[in-house]
Write a structure and sequence with these properties.
Order of helices and strands: HEHEE
Radius of gyration: 17 Å
Strand order of the largest sheet: 1-3-2
Number of helices: 2
Number of domains: 1
Number of strands: 3
Length: about 90
């Protein structure tokens, strides 16, 4: 509903769905410490960057997770192959 002359209104943003079960991925990585797991190939670089920058609470660096991306491609579609591993020595 618009409530002023700007034409803008109040509403909740839609729920973002990535299609990844991050909790399950974190569990798998903890079960195999120090082994790199490929999360996706030719996937969105924005998803890899979001995870790397702490956007997924269960996969933060301070919890011992490490990230690598390879095969990065440029515009128009920014994609990469994305890997994560659990390093128990990095848990803070």
């Amino acid at each position: 509903m618009n409530d002023d002359s700007t034409g803008l209104g109040w509403e909740d943003p839609s729920v973002s769905r990535t299609g990844y079960d991050w909790d399950a991925i974190a569990q798998m990585l903890r079960a195999e410490p120090m082994r790199w797991r490929k999360i996706f190939e030719h996937g969105p670089l924005s998803t890899a960057n979001s995870v790397r920058q702490g956007g997924v609470k269960v996969l933060r660096r301070d919890l011992g997770f490490e990230f690598r991306s390879r095969n990065n491609t440029g515009p128009p579609d920014r994609t990469c192959t994305f890997y994560i591993r659990f390093n128990p020595e990095k848990v803070k």
